[in-house]
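Hi R.,

As promised, here are both runs. First protein below:
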Amino acid sequence: MPSWRLRRPMVRSFGIRCRSLRFAGSAAHPHVDMSQIMASNHPGRTSALIQMRNALTTKGYFYASNVDCLPQHYIESVYAFARQLHELPVADKRRCARPNGTYSGSDAGVEELAYEAGSASTVRAWDFSRVRFPTSGQFCPEVHCPVSGLGFHDFLDDLYGRQDRLAVALMTAFAEMLELPTDTFSSCFSGHGHDMGTIRLLHYPAATSSEEARKRHEANYGISPHTDFEAFTLMHQNAPGLQFLPPNGADWVDAPVREEEFVVIVGDILERFTNGVLRATPHRVLQTAHERFSIIRFNAAA
């Protein structure tokens, strides 16, 4: 993880009553219709909240469908932008590499951290956060980012704002589904202009027959198993490879590719705040023979 991403102190917890849940649906990969969550006074809101709680407590994740601010054609444009960034010359990537920039990748000499001893991560990442870019159109001069006319800041700031709409609705919904005041979680992270979210545009190169790839294949990871330390994460992938470990710790589950839906998983902060009623979702990405891109938004929260 980038060294500049801040870990929010986890100093509060809330009394959560554990009740028997009415299981609403038994799909292998649960989804929640976000139009019922994001629209005010939607008649299906209560049902959607039950589905959300059931999904997070039994599976550890759900697919968020019908997110009007993140339609499929827009998601496709994000992947096109991500590909442009990842195809920049290595010299540009090195100039923009951490710790003073927003890029990490072995091609620039800055490898992603591995979460298991003996494992290596092949993922490459471009990062964006309003912590480092606090106001639209204003750059932090000490942060090195692409200046090749791609519109790095403006494009990702727009994506950030769109994801905020979903993130804010989810933070409120998480409190409601646990029968807490609606601002229980959002009040801990919002306000005073502090945007604690981070976007990562990830690229997982396809495995090759090179010696380096052979060594990495022995670890068999695009990124090794871990949980995210933020409140929750929005995830989208354009090809298979992502896996989750459900709360019962049985077997790793392949996450299907759904072009119009983001996956929502729980992070360490919500696990702490809910006294373990919600458990942080272990996940990993296997190294694959095909190239993968992924859109990640960490929320601590927006």
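And here is the second one, sequence first, then its structure tokens:
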Amino acid sequence: MEWLRECGLDCVDEALCVFVDVVEGENSCTVIHIHSYCTADGLHRETSQHAVVYE
């Protein structure tokens, strides 16, 4: 997570989620929520991305 912050992203949040898999039962995953407000061309745009990392 720290390397994402070092790349100049304005806000990086991490949360734990639990989901139910029909075959394997209950599993957990990490949801990474990334906000970036400044682009490489110097313009300010709000973007938001989600990445789900299954454990």
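A quick note on the second one: The chain has a mean pLDDT of 57. Let me know what you think.

Best,
J.
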